[in-house]
Specification:
Beta-Lactamase; Immunoglobulin-like; 6 helices; five-stranded antiparallel β-sheet; globular; 3 domains; nine-stranded mixed β-sheet; mainly beta
Length: 453
């Protein structure tokens, strides 16, 4: 795989990092990319796709914490490999800087360029392993004060409100010591699940799937051996081929049933068959211990009901109800609901519940999109939005065919749908007094959450 350029842009289009490896893409590619991405959205469409072509140049990009990580090439390369490369570059830089944001990039540009020169040589990828790079990268990171940090990744949401969760520890560079040369011994294990659900117009589940990962970040000195125990009733069904994908079938059909899974190369599976325990010596940096997929039926965290009906010759009313199906001690945050409206909609007025707090509504006239955002939803709560629509022309036929579906995004800390659990996290002891901090955390996010009308 070969790329021509790599660059990172801010949300304003400022060039933060730029490397031209092959001098074959015309100058001004950063401006061309940003102008294309910006006007893509302003034209009333969704965000620009991760891959597009302008004047014979292929642009690949991922958006991480508001920053655009971009690669260009004029040759035919595997899109998935380039997008994966961009994600890995972002992860490596985060491992070394501790946090990804514009400020940390600008204060550590020498270190970032040193990393890029080792990761990519003349457009060809050499390595994206934080551990391998240790032998070639010598600059020390300039740390950013925790008070200036913004939430930057799924792990950051755990710092909101829960006293049992760590503060800014997870934003430290993996390879840097604390002031005074000491480092706090701790390890983070995050179970992150992205769910996809499609509801029928009558509220029944048509499709449901979970894409999950067990992510680990270790601040343990001396690379001790880790034992990670999962549910004993974990069963793995038939997945794809490959030595790292286990092919099991549950005899009873009970317990947690995964369709397939794969493991990081450092994971040893000697006792996985008997007691569902993973053994590994964690490499430096953040890495996925295990990825898994599940299509077994599960209870979706939100139930969405939508009704749209005529209210006159040029009017209609939309009612959207959201009910949280998780326990009351769990709180979802950053909830966003969107619904495409008929093309001839010219105005929308909204009515929220009298005690609605932290909720906002909007009607995007260019894209004909209804938007409803909620700062948080407590488990067991129900919220309703009413919208009165005004049309510029009479509608003919079934109005429901010209509106919807309703889509939803959200994040739920300390909750996972699959019920996959880390039963214990055991660390090989160096001495009787060695007792590092262990943080095991869960989060559920919406990958595709859609309700038909």
């Amino acid at each position: 795989m070969m790329i021509s350029q790599f660059f990172v842009l801010s949300q304003r289009g400022d060039n933060i990092v730029f490397r031209d490896y092959r001098a074959e893409v015309p100058k001004g590619s950063t401006e061309t990319f940003f102008r294309k991405v910006k006007f893509w959205k302003e034209d009333g469409n969704a965000e620009a796709p991760p891959i597009f072509n302008v004047d014979g140049v292929n642009y690949f990009h991922v958006k991480v914490v508001g920053l655009y990580f971009v690669a260009t090439t004029k040759v035919n390369v595997s899109p998935s490999l380039v997008l994966e490369l961009l994600q890995r570059i972002a992860r490596v830089i985060k491992d070394y800087l501790g946090v990804l944001n514009e400020d940390s990039f600008r204060k550590n540009f020498v270190l970032v360029y040193e990393l890029l020169d080792e990761v990519i040589d003349f457009g060809y990828v050499q390595t994206t392993s934080t551990e391998v790079l240790k032998a070639y990268v010598f600059n020390e990171p300039i740390l950013i004060a925790p008070a200036r940090l913004q939430p930057i990744d799924p792990a950051a949401i755990f710092t909101q409100g829960a006293k049992r969760m760590p503060g800014a520890a997870v934003t430290k560079p993996v390879l840097a010591n604390d002031p005074g040369g000491r480092r706090r011994e701790e390890i983070f294990v995050d179970i992150i699940e992205k769910i996809s659900v499609t509801f029928s117009s009558s509220g029944y589940i048509l499709t449901s799937e979970i894409d999950g990962t067990i992510q680990m970040k270790s601040y343990l000195s001396g690379n001790p051996e880790i034992r990670l125990a999962l549910n004993e009733d974990l069963n793995i069904g038939r997945g794809g081929g490959g030595v790292s994908v286990y092919d099991y079938r549950s005899s009873s059909g009970s317990g947690v049933i995964l369709d397939d899974c794969n493991f990081h190369e450092s994971v040893r599976l000697n006792s996985f068959d008997s007691d569902r325990t993973l053994s590994l010596v964690p490499p430096d940096g953040e890495f996925p211990v295990m990825n898994y997929r599940m299509t077994q039926e599960f209870r979706p965290p939100f139930h969405v009901n939508t009704l749209i009906e005529e209210a006159g010759r040029l009017k209609a009313e939309v009612i959207i109800k959201i009910r949280a199906e998780f326990p009351s001690d769990i709180i979802a945050n950053t909830i966003a609901v969107q619904m495409p409206l008929p093309n001839y909609t010219c105005r929308a007025s909204f009515e929220l519940e009298h005690d609605a707090v932290g909720q906002k509504t909007d009607f995007k006239e260019t894209s004909k999109m209804l938007e409803w955002s909620l700062k948080k939803i407590v488990g067991g709560a129900e919220h309703t939005l009413r919208a009165k629509l005004t049309f510029s022309q009479e509608f003919h036929g079934n109005i429901t065919k010209e509106a919807g579906p309703v889509s939803m995004t959200f994040t739920i800390p300390m909750y996972n749908v699959s019920k996959l659990q880390v039963k214990y996290l055991q660390i090989a002891k160096k001495s009787s007094s060695y007792n590092p901090y262990r943080w095991v955390r869960y989060v559920t996010q919406a990958n595709s959450y859609v309700a038909r009308i």
